[in-house]
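DATA SHEET
Item: assembly model
Revision: 1
Owner: S.N.
Input lines:
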Amino acid sequence: MQAPVLVVRGTRAMTSKKANSRWLRYWPRLFLVIPLLAILWVPSYNKIEPALGGVPFFYWYQLAWILVGAAFVLLVYVIDTRITRVAETPPAGLDTTGAPGDIL
Amino acid sequence: MILDLTATSVFVALFLLVTWIGFVAARWRKADLNLLHEWGLGGRRFGTVVTWFLLGGDLYTAYTFIAVPALVYGKGAIGFFAVPYTILIYPILYLIFPRLWAIAHERGHVTAADYVRDRFGSRMLALAVAVTGIVATMPYIALQLVGMEVVIGALGFPAGGFTGHLPLIIAFIVLAAFTYTSGLRAPALIAIVKDALIFVTVIAAIVIIPAKLGGYGVIFASVPQEKLTLAPPQGDSLGAYSAYATLALGSALALFLYPHAMTGILSSSSGNVIRRNAAMLAAYSFILGLIALLGYMAIAAGVDKDPAYAAGFTEYGANFAVPALFLASFPSWFVGVAFAAIAIGALVPAAIMSIACANLFTRNLYKEFVRPDCSAADEARVAKIVSLVVKIGAVVFILAIPQAFAIQLQLLGGIWIIQLLPPILLGLYTRSFNAAALLTGWGAGIAIGTYMAGTQGFTSSVYPLALFGVTVPGYAALYSVLINFLVAAALTPLFDLMARRGASPAAR
């Protein structure tokens, strides 16, 4: 994960490298495809066994994916804000400063 | 049923509390409420926590809390599609909507139609977006009343007639009054109380009820085995598998196109607020998954066989399963808390939905076509009045029209609203699509989606699509929006060519 970070930070606005750097900046979002595919592949979880504490697999597996899915979103958020910093870059000409109470 | 005085007192007390909060909200983060973006978007200043409550209160409605377990109670595993649906919405929210927020913030858009108007320069396409939004949301507001009606009935108020509807009418007058005064600030503050009540109720339900019934093993053992999983595909049909997956995906794609969801998103203070919420809102999904399981608990508790609840089931059908389960399992005072949670859970989305409809009407019908020169204060005044009209309309709707019809309309609403996906999604990344082509695609999607639901007698949105000898039962919304995309993509070069030759399509 270190190499792309350095490249992204060091990239000047060079046209030949632009497509490349976009890919490096946005690749973490591919993680979001994982919960999508897992949950849409219905036959993989349409069964009763193994049950967990009396709850059939069909139910506890999907409930667990709510948490795993959220973890993937959180992971991408952390990468986007801390490492590749795409989330901090507002679209050109956009002023997002001065928005009070970002947390509350 | 006899009126349960303890439960009713707790219920009324909590209702009075949120009424007070609704009016006080006008003074919260004080600003000029005679400006539409202040009244209708809370000044775009809601941070992560408030947005979390607001969107949670907005998307997980009273109707959801009643209808999802009712579906699981009645039909079993297929009703659990609400869970994959809520898993899918958050990656979608993360990928698409911070960008939409940024554009809307920069350009001062209050509604999705404002944004489409600006991106594609077409009044007609914006009109289509606005009208679809309003028409799809109206039955949704009406269904919030259904959720409320069920719990009011379960408290023991007589059903039917004017006296039967009186509590509902009073609740909606109160709702209309505080929405008029405080705008989006009211549901944002009330959502905090609502969610606290919902969390308490659900945690109590998943601890107390299984303990009473003998554990989760006993609960699932008492459900007929064929209900517990989806029926595996047979012959040349993909059966319940494709239905389950497409219902989840289609509903997830449709959700944030609804005006009330859009209003919740645009009222946040930054793109990162939306991104953080895409992870944090999963807490509500988890709660919804647990609520869905209440349907099985109702089966295990045998509430449908209890003569005390026979009248309720006759009146409200499967929707009575959860209220009956609460009545059977909780002491009176806590029944009051649980029912108040559901009723207040109806107020929050109903308020946001009516505000969203009012914003659409004011910005994209009134200002666009009736009075282009109206002042900012006029704009806010019209929106406030429209929010009243919308709520009166919803009450009349639910009292005058059979409930089954409202449910069918809401089902159609999902198919209609998803047709906004091509203009809204494509507008984020490219302006190269032709507005007239997008409008034609929208029309084709609406027509085909409605036809697909029509072949099912408007009682199911799952259409058995025959593809190369294989039947793929799937959500009509998803099929029709694909056609919408294809039409828009195919007609864009054609219409662009016509425009260049001077034969400008009408929608420009």
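QC remark: Chain A has a mean pLDDT of 71.
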